[in-house]
Design a protein that fits this description.
The protein is mainly α. It contains twelve helices and two strands. α4 crosses α8. Strands 1-2 form a two-stranded antiparallel ribbon.
């Protein structure tokens, strides 16, 4: 398994996919801050040329972390990039379950390194180009990223589980969307009639990130700003990691049969 992971790690860092993905996202965020800066210079009354406004899109939609992890995992372990790697690995005695675990570790590590670069460009360019108070908003962003990092890892694991079981990215994305987006809404609305489902719905990331995060020009309220909300995010995220790992192992065991 270690040899498989080393070979995959070498492939990931010596192909363009990781660097292009990171560069494109970082470039888009840098461009956004540059546009805000230029519009503020052109019109001193322009109200959005501030650090607060620049950081608000990510703070108001932390689901983007999970979606970005899915996108990167899809690129790194696409059918085209894998070729005959899976068949060769299985032929050398590496079980599908171990390959699944290796993919989860590698894709999560690559996504984490990519995120660090993207956030450095995002926050750094905002501090460099834009005006306004920065310390409280950067602290809220850092707390938000730390609080939702386990959820993002869980999203990567869920995608890898379906991708390896179903064999194609598009087929894996559909059940991923169902679990991350559709299931929480079903639980939320069903919870109005069946209280236990309502309690479950409160702990599903899509729901609490939509209902307990209010970020706009007049409000800056995020559940991870207090210890109880921070704990809720962490518990939910780590529970997702555990559940999706078990799901992935079960799916791959069934595949072997």
């Amino acid at each position: 398994m270690l040899n498989y992971m080393r070979s995959e790690w070498y492939r990931i860092f010596h192909t363009k996919a990781l660097w292009v993905f990171t560069g494109v996202l970082a470039g888009l965020l840098l461009a956004m801050n540059a546009v805000l800066y230029l519009m503020g210079r052109g019109d001193p009354r322009f109200p959005y040329s501030t650090i607060r406004f620049s950081l608000s899109p990510l703070l108001s939609n932390m689901l983007m972390m999970g979606c970005s992890g899915l996108a990167l995992a899809s690129i790194l372990f696409s059918d085209k990039s894998q070729g005959g790697i899976m068949k060769n690995a299985v032929a050398y005695g590496i079980s599908r379950t171990r390959i699944f675990a290796g993919k989860c570790i590698l894709s999560s590590a690559a996504a984490f390194l990519s995120m660090l670069v993207i956030l450095a460009v995002y926050v750094g360019s905002a501090l460099w180009l834009l005006d306004g108070e920065w310390e409280p908003y950067v602290q809220i962003l850092i707390r938000g990223v730390l609080a939702n990092l386990p959820f993002a890892v869980a999203c990567v694991i869920l995608f890898v589980a379906f991708q390896q079981f179903l064999g194609r990215e598009i087929l894996a994305i559909l059940p991923w969307l169902g679990i991350v987006y559709v299931l929480p809404l079903i639980c939320l609305y069903a919870g109005f009639q069946f209280e236990p489902l309502g309690k479950i719905a409160e702990w599903l990331p899509y729901n609490y990130l939509q209902l307990e995060v209010q970020v706009n020009m007049s409000q800056y309220e995020c559940l991870w700003m207090n210890s109880q909300g921070m704990l809720k995010c962490l518990v939910s995220g780590f529970a997702g990691i555990g559940f999706f790992l078990i799901l992935g192992v079960c799916l791959n065991h069934r595949k072997e049969l």
